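Notes from hallway chat w/ T.B., transcribed later so I don't forget. T.B. wanted the structure written out for a chain they're using in a teaching module, and asked if we could keep both sequence and C-alpha cells in one place. Agreed to drop them here.
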Amino acid sequence: MARRLDAVIVGAGPNGLAAAALLARAGRSVRVIEGGATPGGASRTEELTLPGYLHDVGSAIHPLGAASPCFRELDLEGAGLEWVSPPAAVAHPFDDRPAAVIEPSIEATAAGLGRDGDAYRRLFGPLAASWPDLAGVLLGPLRPPPLGAVGPLTRFGLAALRSARGLARSRFRGARARGLFAGLAGHSVLPLERVASAAVGLVLGVAAHRVGWPFPRGGAAGIVAALLRRLEEAGGVVETGTWVESLDELPPARVVLADVGPRQLLRLAGEGLPPGYRRALARYRYGPGIFKLDLALSGPVPWSDPACARAATVHLGGTLEEIAHGEREAWRGRIADRPFVLLAQPSLFDPGRAPQGGHTLWAYCHVPHGAPDDVTAAVEGQIERFAPGFSERIVARSAMTAPQVEAWNPNCVGGDITGGVTDLRQLFARPVLSRVPYATPVRGLYLCSSSTPPGGGVHGMCGYHAARAALARELAGGGRR
C-alpha cells in the first residue's frame, strides 16, 4: 500500500511551486503533479521565433516578484535567481512631448514631471516610505492589519479605492503625469473609470521606487528554476506530463493544494464540493483576455525619445484619455484601433536573450474575453507610432490570440492572465468571501492559484498563504510520515 503523502500540489506554476517548497521546507512530504511537459505555468522562457532568441511566453517583468515576502523567505537569489534592474523602471512616450519616466528615486521621477512633480511626491512618497508595513497586508487575504499598518493602510485606501481616471485627474494637471499613472493602472485590466482601478497603479508605482521593475536574467524561467531548486533541496518531487482529470486520481495525501482557477476546481472536484460552494465558484468572473506578440528584431527599437531605451518596460498608449478608451473598449467587446500596449525589451539589458546584434521584444494588449482576433497590425502600429522605422527591424514573429493563451494555460480563462477580475468585489473575495479564502469546505482541499488573494502576478504569495493555512489547520502535527 502506497505511503500517504502530507501534501499533493496540482499544478507547477509559481504559486504551486512556492506552496510546495514551503511545505517541504517545513518537513512535510510533498509531490507536485503538472500536466505540462515542463514546470512553470505562465513563467516559461522559450525560443518562440528563431533559434537563440529567448522569449518569455507569459510573464516577463516582475516588480511584485522582487518585492515578494515569499520569494525572500525562500531566498531565491541564493538559489540562483539573478534580478536584472534597468536604469529606469518604466518609460511612457507621447506623440508631442518628452516621455515620462519612473526613475528609481521619487525625487528624480518628480523632477522629470515638471509642474506635477510636487503632486507625484505627495502621492507616492508616503506610500513608498510605509511599504514595509503595507506589503504584508496588501499581498495577502483580507484581515485586520497590524497596529503599525493602520495609518499607512488608511492613507493607501483613500487613494486606492478611487478610479484611476478620477485619481489621475484630481492629483495631476498635466498630460504626462496623468498618462504615466494611467499606464500603471492599465495593469489592473479594469476600465479606468471603475472604483479601485487605482489600486494596482499605486502598488506598481510604489514597487518601482522600492525594488524597481526587474526581470530574471535569462528569462522568467529563472524564477521557476530557483523554486524547483528549493523544493528539491527539501525533498519535494515534481511529476510532469500528467494531466489530472479528477481529484480521485491523486495519490493519497493529507492535503491537496490546487494551483487552478475556480472553473478548473469545479471540473476536478465535481460533486465532491458542497452545492453552495459550487454555485459561488460558478459565479466567479473573468475579465478581458490578451493578444500576445513576441518579435525577433535585427536591432534595438528605434525610439523617437531615447529615454525609452533606459527601461525594460514601455507603456504605449499616450494620454490618460486614450488609454482609458482602449481599456473600456475591451470590456465592451471591442478592440480599439489604438490599444494600450504593454511592451518589454529585455535584451537591451540581458544580451544573452538574443544572438549578437539581435533583440527580443515582448508585447501584449487587452482584448475582449475570448476574442479570437489577431491584432498584430494594431500592436505593431502602436510601436511604430513611437519608434518610426521599427517595423523594418522585425525578422520573425510569434503571436497568441486569447483562445490560444487559454489553450496554452487553462488557468487563463478567455485569455484572462490575472486569474479573474480584480475589481473591488473580487480584489479580496477571491474566489469567495471567506476568512481563509484558500480553504474550501472540503477538508484537506485548498486553492493556491491567482484566483485567491492577492491575485495575479508572479510573486508566489497565493501559494505562500495557502501553504500557511494548510500547515496551521491540518499539517501542524509533525513532519514526514
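Follow-up for T.B.: The chain has a mean pLDDT of 96. Might be a good example for the class.
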